[in-house]
């Protein structure tokens, strides 16, 4: 692993473990929409992952069955814990983190690049996000292992509105490699 990949892996692990919080979902989103059993052809390929904040990069390999991040070396396959759906031009990557579902949203640009969005925030931004979200959809909370989790259960229409009004933020650029 190159020093740059080591740095990205450390940054991602630290970010996920300590600084980012996010609103999760009770079930895979958008609810009621068909689960894709395979990754669509137009998404299959190799992408350069670019973290603008840290200046770090890595490689993402997307196959018909799932994806692999080069520095992680763990293949993530579609199945019960990783569900892909499509609705209104967005791809919804649902990750089962029992008792919650985390959501990543992908939008493919005309040149094949992907916009990767999530509702992850640092502590200060998260409190502001909770306030904004609670004005648009019902927000529930529960405590699990001493940690407070916040969940929403939007309709598909509400979910798209949350994306289009900027509640999901672009976090990583995925540049399609030729």
Task: Explain what the structure shows.
The protein has 178 residues and is an alpha+beta fold. The chain has one domain (3-176). It is built from 3 helices and 15 strands. It has helices at residues 3-19, 123-134, 156-164, and strands spanning 21-22, 24-25, 35-36, 45-51, 56-62, 66-69, 75-77, 82-87, 90-97, 100-108, 114-118, 120-121, 139-144, 147-152, 169-176. It has a 10-stranded antiparallel sheet with strand order 3-8-9-10-11-15-4-5-6-7. A 3-stranded mixed sheet has the order 2-14-13. Strand 5 and strand 6 (66-69) form a beta hairpin. It is globular.
Helix and strand arrangement:
Layout: H1 3-19, E1 21-22, E2 24-25, E3 35-36, E4 45-51, E5 56-62, E6 66-69, E7 75-77, E8 82-87, E9 90-97, E10 100-108, E11 114-118, E12 120-121, H2 123-134, E13 139-144, E14 147-152, H3 156-164, E15 169-176
Number of helical runs? 3
Order the strands across the largest sheet as they lie in space. Answer: 3-8-9-10-11-15-4-5-6-7
Average predicted local confidence, pLDDT: 87
Biggest beta sheet attributes = 10 strands, antiparallel
